Every structure is written in structure tokens, then in C-alpha cells.
Amino acid sequence: MMQNYKAILTREMSGPRPVVLSGPSGAGKSTLLKRLMKEYEGVFGFSVSHTTRNPRPGEEDGKDYHFVTREKMQEGIDKGEFIENAEFSGNMYGTSKSSIEDVQAQNLICILDVDIQGVKNIKKTDLNPIYISIQPPSMEILEKRLRDRQTESEDSLQKRLEAARIDMELSKEPGVFDIVIVNDDLEEAYEKLKSVLIEEIEKVQDAKK
Ligand SMILES: Nc1ncnc2c1ncn2[C@@H]1O[C@H](COP(=O)(O)OP(=O)(O)OP(=O)(O)O)[C@@H](O)[C@H]1O
Ligand SMILES: Nc1nc2c(ncn2[C@@H]2O[C@H](COP(=O)(O)O)[C@@H](O)[C@H]2O)c(=O)[nH]1
């Protein structure tokens, strides 16, 4: 009984469980999470990462990423401001502690979009998120999606495909992810994602009533 009470208290103090979305570049993470955040406005908050890559057309500083120089990013890492950071396709990426705290302070479900290195490093922290991997149906389809997106140079595209091969292998390892969703048909993948998160979503909605 006492233990139950303690568990409830801890949950209330720490808020809803965060969600880590991972998977190869081009698998559809941003597409799915933007849709989720639109349908469940006021339930999710995006953890805005830092990156040293250049913004793509339409991307906003402070909303999609905090776009920073290598020097600035390294300075933050050295000061211990990041819970994880990684080098991906020639650029630095990282999750600052404050990006998560900002979302959690609002009692929202914090969504993190990180690569597989991020997943491994977050597992060493006490964040305790739900780990979801979004996978493409095949390497061929992934390459087509990345090319059609027209955001990458040939060099960046090749680096991303190489990272994708590693990611696709690692995602098959038991225990790394709570669930692996193959994003073939977008509607089906989205429904699956919602079904995994519905319990957590309802908790946040109930708390607002
Ligand atoms: N099920 C799908 N069927 C067809 N195209 C899709 C599907 N899901 C996503 N796409 C398209 O594939 C491209 C890559 O998707 P998206 O940008 O969401 O990937 P991502 O995993 O967020 O990539 P990154 O990690 O590089 O940010 C986009 O142009 C998107 O519109
Ligand atoms: N380890 C981390 N990986 C991150 C973070 N933010 C994004 N990412 C991952 O980087 C790649 C490429 O992203 P893109 O926006 O340049 O296409 C992708 O796999 C993201 O999941 C982060 O903070 N830490």
C-alpha cells in the first residue's frame, strides 16, 4: 500500500513519461510527430535539440532546432548542459537539459527525436522514456524518400544511408526499443503510434480536466 502511494506520488511529481522517437533519417519521424502534436495540441511538447547543421528552408531557429556553431555547442557540452550529444552525418546534435525541463515544466509529454547513439546515451540517464523506433519498409524506399525530400547533398545522403544500415540492424536487437513501427503506409503507422501512446495521452488529458 505504502509502495503504491509512493509510486503515485513520484509519478505526479515527475509528470508524464517522455517519448523517444528514433530511426533512420528519412524514415518519417518528423512527419509522424508533427501530426501527433497537431492532433493532440496541448498534450505533447517537442524537445528542441541543438545542431550545427544549416537550417533547411522553412525550419525555424528555436522551434525545429537551436542552430548553433560547433564552438557554441562544444562550450555547452563542456559545461554539462546536455543530457546526450552525438555526431551524425558530419554535424553535431544534442539534447540540452533545459529543452526537456521546459516541456516537463508544462506537464506535457516530452517528445525527443534522436538517432541511435542518442537512444544508447539516454538509456544511461534517469529519463525513463518510452522508446519507439520508426523504420522504413526497405533501404530502397528510404533512399527514394530521402532523395525526394531534396534536403541532402549526395555526400550527406550517402552518410545518412550508411547510418541507416547500422540503425536498421540495431533496432532488431531485443530490448533496445519498446516498439518498432514500420512506416510503410503512413495512416497505418500513425494509428499504431497513437495506440502505443494513448494511455499516456489520456493521463495528460485527464489531468487537465
Ligand atoms: N509513409 C510514408 N510514405 C511516403 N512518404 C513518406 C511516408 N512517411 C514520410 N514520408 C516522406 O518521407 C520523407 C522523410 O520523412 P521525414 O522527414 O518525416 O523523416 P525523418 O525520419 O524525420 O528524417 P530526419 O531524421 O532526416 O529528420 C518526407 O518527405 C516525408 O514526407
Ligand atoms: N543524438 C541526437 N540525435 C538527434 C538529435 N536531434 C536530431 N537527431 C537525429 O539526427 C538525425 C538527423 O536529423 P536531421 O534533422 O538533420 O535530418 C536524425 O536521425 C535525428 O533523429 C539530438 O538532439 N540528439
Automatic annotation (TrEMBL):
It comes from Labeo rohita (Indian major carp). GO terms for molecular function: ATP binding; GMP kinase activity. The keyword Iron-sulfur does not apply. It is found in: Cytoplasm. This is Guanylate kinase. It holds the Pfam family Guanylate_kin. CDD domains: GMPK. The lineage of its organism: Eukaryota, Metazoa, Chordata, Craniata, Vertebrata. It catalyses: GMP + ATP = GDP + ADP.
